[in-house]
Amino acid sequence: MLSSVFAKTLRDRRRAFLYWSLGLVAFIAMEVAVYPTVRDNPTFKTLGDSYPQAIKDLFSFGGQFDIVSGAGFLGIEAFSIVVPMMLIYCTVAAGANAIAGEEERGTLDLLLSLPLSRSRCLLEKLAALVAETLALGLVLWTVLVIAVPLAKMHIGVLELLAATLLALALALVFGMIALAVGAASGRRGLAIGVPAALAVATYVLNSLASLVGWLGHLQWFSPFYYYTRSDPLRTGLDLSDLLVLLAIAAVFAAAAPFLFRRRDLTTP
Amino acid sequence: MFGFLGPNGAGKTTTIRLLLDLIRPTAGRIEIFGLDLRRASVAIRARIGYLPGDLHLYERLTPREHLRYFAALRGLDGLGEGEKLAERFELELDRPIKALSKGNRQKVGLVQAFLHRPDLLLLDEPTAGLDPLVQQTFNELLREVAAEGKTVFLSSHILSEVQRLADRVAIIREGSLELVETVETLRARAFVRVEATFSEPPPVKAFAGLSGVRELERKGSVVLLVLEGPADPLVKALARYEVLALDSHEADLEDFFLTFYRTETSDAE
Predict the structure, then answer these.
(1) Domain topology for B191-250
(2) Low-confidence winner among A63-77, A116-130, B255-269 (lowest mean pLDDT)
(3) How far apart are CA B226 and CA B218, in angstroms?
């Protein structure tokens, strides 16, 4: 496990990964356990009618606001906020740790005194971040594939995969921002703060856009727009949305080594 | 073996970090092994061993894991020279680094710098935290690698430490290189401050004309002076009186440097 920067980075994240995996599994299990109660309670059928549009937009994950169907319930309860936020939290922590964390702990000086170029070091850490995100996605998808049929939610395996992939791509956007800010500044606080603030801001921007007219076009700048636009739990993957999210992530990923190469490293 | 001397804050660490391409010069370029550092930084670093002045290790690893990681990144099998060196420094390889004392951490830092038998060693205040016995082992190791024809670049703020090991010495002060001299030249100029306490005030003249004695001062029965060169004439002169206590300490670097500089310029006049 200590043969490369990639392997070492994954090894360092193993405990965090375990906790996040357990968190995801526990959360999905809880949601799925609650679903039959919601489905069988007639008052939930008309629940959406009494909510203002703004509230519905805050919790929307494509399609109609409908908490009674399996896809509607899982979209509103899991994929609208909690799942993306958990994934984003994880990728941002890993992204900020990659360069800035190591720099603040002072070990980066020694690491880069080895015959290892800065770009190489960063790309291995970036690859580890992607690998960790994919692994977390695999955990999420697996628990969904097992739990959803148990609660008779009637969502296909591919539809679950589509929603999972969109959530992963969204999380990668903010993870790459964390990595790039950390690579540019060497400051872990900044590398967490900037993507966290952006995540909240673009989430709110996307939710309010349908209500506030002049925000309409700005919605395009929100990664959440591409995340919530389609209805993956019912209609499967919209490839273009996935590609847009991956492209945004790629822009920050490409900027990171460029920013990292040209600056002076700091010592704690 | 090249001694790189300077008081704290003079720019020793900055220079070494420049040589490793960790920070970049605002002007000028650096060549090591005849290669341009910006263009061939990885190839150059493959041949360098580095011990930072402010050592930070991966706390959660054991020394063995840490050394294996660095050996792997240097393309070496196993621990490289690590096993042998760890034995020599009596470094315990399998306790987590976070549980190690400062001296033992420093040993890990030293061993990783020597893992790949580098052609150039950049050692930033390497003896900090080492106990005298380990320091001796370390000095032996340095002499060995120097005898193999490797270059050791040793930074320190202690003149005597560098004098013991280095062939040539540079002094850096407030970011600029002030002088580069052989150790012999410096040693000839080195001086100590001596404080002798007598049972009764001796005549001042007793030590006045002695060779190598300067800045003579008497405060009651205590005599303060600066001694440069061999100690024999002074010792013989002291022996004629009853000495209660004798204390001597090496001049600090700034002190030495100023004196050196003063005599240097007056020589030139």
Answers:
(1) Alpha-Beta Plaits (3.30.70)
(2) B255-269
(3) 12
Pick the CATH number of B2-186 from 3.90.1300.10, 3.30.450.40, 3.40.50.300, 3.65.10.10: 3.40.50.300
Burial class for A39, CB neighbours closer than 10 Å (0-12, 13-18, 19+): middle
What pLDDT is attached to residue B264? 57
Domain coordinates in residue numbering, chain B: 2-186, 191-250
Question: In the prediction, which pLDDT does B267 show?
Answer: 52
Calculate how close chain B gets to A109, using CA atoms only, in Å: 7
The answer to whether residue B239 neighbours chain A at the CB level (below 8 Å) is no
* Tokens read off for A4: 């490369």
Structure ipTM: 0.90
Across the interface, which of A115, A262, A265 has its CB nearest the CB of B22? Answer: A265
Distance CA B125, CA A260 (A): 28
- Measured CA to CA, the distance from residue B156 to residue B13 in angstroms comes to 10
Compare all CA atoms of chain A with the CA of B45 and give the residue at the minimum distance: A115
Q: Where are the alpha helices (DSSP H) in chain A?
A: 5-12, 14-40, 47-50, 53-58, 70-74, 82-96, 102-105, 108-111, 118-150, 157-185, 188-208, 223-228, 232-235, 239-261
Query: In the predicted model, what is the mean pLDDT of chain B?
Result: 88
In this structure, what token pair is assigned to residue B203? 């005549």
Tell me how far apart the terminal alpha carbons of chain B are, to the nearest angstrom.
Answer: 32
Higher pLDDT, B258 or B38: B38
Which of residues 25 through 44 in chain A touch B, CB cutoff 8 A?
Answer: none
- CB-nearest partner of B56 from A107, A112, A264: A107
The residues near A218 (Cβ < 8 Å, ≥ 6 apart) are A205, A209
